[in-house]
Amino acid sequence: MSKIELKNITFGYDTQGTLLFDQANLNVDTQWKLGLIGRNGRGKTTLLKILQDQLVYSGKIIHQLEFLYFPQPIKDSKQLTYYVLQEISEFEQWEIERELNLLQVDPAILWREFESLSGGEQTKVLLALLFIDAHYFPLIDEPTNHLDIVGRKQVAEYLKKKRQGFIVISHDRSFVDEVVDHVLSIEKSQIELYHGNFSVYEEQKKIKDDFELAQSEKLKKEVSRLKKTAAEKVEWSRSKEQDKYGRASEKGSGAIYDTGAIGARAARTMKRAKTIEHRMETKLTAKENLLKDIEYIDLLTMNYQPGHLKRLLTVENLQLNYQEQSLFRAISFELNQSQRIALAGPNGSGKSSIIRFLLNQFDGGRQGTVIRPERLKISYVRQNYEDNRGTLLEFSEEQNLDHQEFLNNLHKLGMEREVFQNRIEQMSMGQRKKVELAKSLAQPAELYIWDEPLNYLDVFNQEQLEQLILSIKPSMLLVEHDQVFLKKIATQIITLNK
């Protein structure tokens, strides 16, 4: 049994001006299957880079096993997959074939060019490479992005059966819930370790947050009461002091008053007021130490503009094909106002092709009928959005967006204001995804077509989208593999079959 120890780790990017980690300490058993979670930009991938000694930090990291990161960089994707993997790590052919069989992948895939593999196939062969050598500790960063529902279940089963530990980052809550036995949460003021899966983390985090909210409310009321009492005593003391001097002047005229007793009583009252103020400051300090790690989820806005038409799409016996080979069996459905239809099916079954066809971007053949109103206002979230470029102002002007609404949603999605000054092409993939999503939310639309909207988004962003969609009830056609999300927001799921 070996350990990974982090001692007083401190790190922050110069451009951000704040520390991501400040004197962080952590002990990890290398047999743990550890889920690493936290808001986008909180430092999940940064922590993996620190473990690999790719960033300059202060503190100390002690570890016996070497780290191996997923996804591994590919030097030449035109090579056969076997040789691509050999350039990353040495192995025997039977070893990689064993892991591929466990992942339910035909080992013949090794003798195809790497670039010819689907995203899901590339993910699986690179994952297989992680677990050949037990002298490495895998760091797995977003493995589910290119996996369909079946692929996610296969990878989850594969990871569950591994005796070897790892750290995994994934936006898919059910996937993380299934494969991890510990959760490391990067919170606003600290990193915190939870023993259990994602459901245990959510439950314990909620109990902790609810307790702190109750304590904060209790302290708030107590501070308010103490403030009022202290103010009353100070006011009484001042009035008696004034009364003492007034009566002292009257004493000179022959009246008899005990001004000494009045002054002593006023002094005692003032002293009690000072004691109350000290108690109040103590409770204020206690209140300030609460709520530091509660994640506040701001409500997003959506420029949904439903028209007078009830039916937005009618699809009858639709089949799409490339070179006369059908992608799926004929499907029929109707999409009415406020309905949210999800297209489901394995990778390569034609889900994104249907979207491209509806947007007049499909270059294959088709059979069947699609009826939709002319001038239907559609807002589209794409899987690939690398062509988004320029500053946020330039981008919003080019897309004819309300710039303020666009920025507000970006900030609510967790993008820091200092990032607003960066060019889009210089942003992280998570930040670029938020730009694509915030663009869609700001566009006036009668129908939203979203192709895998949750890729690169954290669980808090997903909750934001769920709340928004359930509140606004927009008309939507979407492709998404996250079952928790679909169960909450989809009114109908259409599964594509060969």
From TrEMBL:
Highest classification ranks of the organism: Bacteria, Bacillati, Bacillota, Bacilli, Lactobacillales
UniProt xrefs under InterPro entries: AAA+_ATPase, ABC_transporter-like_ATP-bd, ABC_transporter-like_CS, ABCF_ATPase, P-loop_NTPase
Signal peptide as annotated in the record: none
Gene3D superfamilies: P-loop containing nucleotide triphosphate hydrolases (3.40.50.300)
Plastid as UniProt keyword: no
Nucleotide-binding recorded as keyword: yes
Domain ABC transporter: 4-213, 313-498
Protein's recorded name: ABC-F type ribosomal protection protein
Molecular functions per Gene Ontology: ATP binding; ATP hydrolysis activity
SUPFAM superfamilies tied to this protein: P-loop containing nucleoside triphosphate hydrolases
A Pfam family reported for this protein in Swiss-Prot or TrEMBL: ABC_tran
Keyword annotations from UniProtKB, A to Z: ATP-binding, Nucleotide-binding
